[in-house]
Structure formats: structure tokens, C-alpha cells
Amino acid sequence: MHRIAILASGNGSNAQRIIEYFENSKLVDITLVLCNKPGAYVITRAKNLGIPAITFNRDAFYENGTVVKTLADHQIDFLVLAGFLWLIPQNILKLYPGRIINLHPALLPKYGGKGMYGMKVHEAVIAAGERESGITIHFVNEFYDEGQIIFQSRCPVLPSDTPELLADKIHALEYRYFAEVVEKVVAG
Ligand code: GAR
To answer: CB 3.0 to 4.6 Å from 84: which of 7, 42, 79, 147, for a disulfide?
Structure first.
């Protein structure tokens, strides 16, 4: 069994989808949800689904090793970032080579980087007059949204699309593909 910790910062709809997808899996155990925002809705979702959720602050992530210890204590094999907004520190990257997967709501390398998350991405895509957008699932390295791309899927951007409408289309792609791609990576 491969043990996965999901890292999330906000609403957690992708986290929920992944937890549900692997509920009866013989390959993957969603062991933990780790959240850097106390009160984020992802914590409620995890608890409702019976998955322990642990919150942490900047010190625990970047300075004092608490998060690394939590990962070790729970024998975590892979990290899945589902709407997680902090850069992963070097020590964690070293512990999980090729084992940290991020979801981004645009077609990288465009519309990535620091500060490009959630609705900001969709607003930028529409402001630029793009005719298509999509999702990117990629391995994580030391730079925001620059690790090796594993999978992309596209959708049209219509002249009538608002950022909210585009977000709905992107979420549909995320729910359709993210868990499946994680499963393939974990299976090797
Ligand atoms: C998702 O659309 C995900 O692609 C995006 O945040 C949203 C989280 O939604 N991630 C990023 O923008 C990362 N740069 P959710 O909390 O409902 O899953």
C-alpha cells in the first residue's frame, strides 16, 4: 500500500475527490490531509470522510521540521498538492524525489509561478484573450509550477466565459483526471 498525504490550503474539492476515488483502493491509502490554513474547508471535508487533518504553520514547514516528522511518523510515500499554495522546501523535495505531484489550473508553462493560483489564473487567461485553457499535473521541484509535466488536458475558452465559468470547466477536468493520474504515477 502506498501512503499519500494530501496538502491543501483552501476549499478542498479536489482533495475530497481524491479521498473518495481511493476509498477502496488496494494500491493507495490516503493517510493524511495536511493544511496550512486553520479553518480551511478542506479540514471539514477530510474529517467528514474520516481522514485525519493536521494543520501546520510556516515554522513547522520551513524551520523546525515538524511537518517532516509528521510525514515520517505516518510513513508517507507520496505527497499530492491539491490547491496548496506554498513552495515545497528543499528538505522535503530531497525526501520525496519524483514523489510530489501538483495540480495547476492552466496549461503550464503559461499562467504559472508565484501568485498564480485559483481564480487569479482564470482571470489572467481571460484577460489575455486565450482561446483555450486546461489543467496541468506535474512533478514538483524547487520553483513554482516548473517541474516535469506528467499530464495536460484542454478545454475551450469562449468569448462569453467569465473567470467563474472557466473555473467550473477547469474543475470538471480536475475531478475527471487528477486522481487517475496520481494512481498511474503511484503504480509506476
Ligand atoms: C484547483 O483549481 C487547483 O488547480 C488550484 O487551486 C484550486 C483548488 O480548488 N491550484 C492552484 O492554483 C495551484 N497553483 P479546491 O481547493 O476546490 O480543490
So the answer is: 7
Give the start-to-end residue ranges of the domains of the chain: 2-105+136-152+177-187
Catalytic annotation, residues? 104
Can you give the pLDDT at residue 188?
Answer: 93
How far away, in angstroms, is 13 Cα from ligand 1 center?
8
Cβ contacts of 60-64, under 8 Å, gap ≥ 24: 61/36, 61/86, 61/89, 62/89
pLDDT digits (tens, 9 = 90+) for 149-188: 999 999 999 999 999 999 999 999 999 999 999 999 999 9
Compute, in angstroms, the gap from residue 69 CA to the centroid of ligand 1.
Answer: 26
